[in-house]
Amino acid sequence: MARIEGTLGVGLVGTGWVAASHLRAIEANPHTRLRHICGRQEARARDKLTRFGADVSGVAFTRRYEDLLEAPDVDIIVIATPNHLHAEQAVAAAAAKKHILLEKPTGIDVRELVRIRDAVRRARVRTIVSFVLHYNPFVRFAHWLRESGWLGTIRYARFQYLSRVLDGYPGWSWVKRADSGRSHLLAAGCHAVDALRWCSGLEPTEVSAFHTRFTKGYQWPTSIVLNVKLGRKAIGQVVSSTDFMMPYTFGVELMGDKASMVDGLLFWKDTPLSLVALRRANPFPDVALHEATALDGSPAIRIECDMPASADARHHPFQGEIDELVDCIREGRESHLNVFDAQKTMEVCLAADRSAARDGRPVRLPLIRS
C-alpha cells in the first residue's frame, strides 16, 4: 500500500473502560480523529466514556455497527467489545477495507482465528492487537535484553498474570460467562502468554496444562498453570489466575546461559554483567539501572522503571499501540502485533485450555497449519 497522508478517521465499537483508554490515545495522536461511536445506549455510553476520562463531545453516535463499516470518513475501526464479538466484527471490518485495532482475545476458538486470518489476508488492511504490555518500559526492556544478547541463549522463561477480579470489574456481566469470557487465559492471561513469546523469542511447540476453580461467580476455571516446550530445547511456564489474595502482579522471568532476569533484578554466575556497559547500551531513557545485591550477598543489577502494576486499563500504555498502527497505515507496512502474530498467542491459550480439560494431556502446536 502507498503512503497515506492526512487525518485518519476512527470509529469505535464498544463503550467501556478499555474503550475510553483507546480514545484518550486516539485524541493524543496528531494524525487521528474520532468520528463515530457505536454502542447500545447513547446517554449511558457518553456518560461512561466521560467518567473514564475520554472526550466524546461532538462525536457522532450510532447503534448500528454497519454504520461504521459504511462511513466514508472512517479509516480505522477500534473493536473494544466483549470477547465473543471480536471475531465477527473484525471480519466485517476487514471486508469493509477498514484498518483494525482489535482488543484481545482476537478469537475464542480455532474457527474464529482462521476467519480473522483469511479476512485480513484478503483485504490487506493493517491491524494491531491490543497486547499493550509491549509498550510497557519493563516488558520492552526485557525483550531488548534478550534480543541484544545480554542473557545469552534462553533456557527457561516464566510469566505470570495474577489478579483478583470480582464483580466490581466493569465488564463483569460478560467476562464471568463461559460463552463470552470463555477462560482466564483468553480473558486476561493471554497477556502473559504473549509476553512469553515476545520476550523469549521462542515459539511454543507443545503445551500441557492444569486448571482449577476457587473464586465463585465465574463459569470457568479461575486458575491455570501451563508447562510449555519452547523451540527445540527451552522450557517455560505461564500462571494465569484471579484467585490469589494479593494485588495485581505480572511476573517476568527469563533465564539464559549468560544471565537471568527475575522480575526487577539481573543475576549471573560465571561471567559478571558490566553495569557500566549495560547502562551505555541501554536504549531506553525511562529505564534506569542500579547496583544491587542478591540474597546470598553476590552482586546483581536492579532495573528501575514503570512496571506492569495494575489490571486497570487506565494505567496501561495504549499510546504506543495507536501510534504504531497509525505509522504503519501511513507508511504502508505491517505492525509487529498484527493479527497473524497474535494468532500464535491465541493458539497457545486454546491449546492450554484444551489440555487442562483433558487432565493435562499434552497438545502440540501450532493448532492451525498455514
List keywords for this structure.
single chain, 370 residues, alpha/beta, Rossmann fold, Dihydrodipicolinate Reductase, domain 2, ten-stranded mixed β-sheet, six-stranded parallel β-sheet, 16 strands, 34% helix
- Compute the average pLDDT: 95
State the order of secondary-structure elements, H for helix, E for strand.
Answer: EHEHEHEHEHEHEHHEEEEEEHEEHHE
Strand order in the largest sheet: 14-15-13-12-11-7-10-9-8-16
State the distance separating the first and last CA atoms: 23 Å
Description:
This protein is of the alpha/beta class and 370 residues long. It has two domains: 151 residues, Rossmann fold (3-Layer(aba) Sandwich); 180 residues, Dihydrodipicolinate Reductase, domain 2. The protein is built from eleven helices and 16 strands. The strands form two sheets. The chain has a ten-stranded mixed beta sheet with strand order 14-15-13-12-11-7-10-9-8-16. The longest helix has 19 residues. The radius of gyration is 21 Å and the shape is globular. The mean pLDDT is 95.
Q: What is the gist of this entry?
A:
This protein folds into two domains: 8-133 and 314-338, NAD(P)-binding Rossmann-like Domain (Rossmann fold, 3-Layer(aba) Sandwich), CATH 3.40.50.720; 135-309 and 351-355, Dihydrodipicolinate Reductase, domain 2 (2-Layer Sandwich), CATH 3.30.360.10. The protein is built from eleven helices and 16 strands.
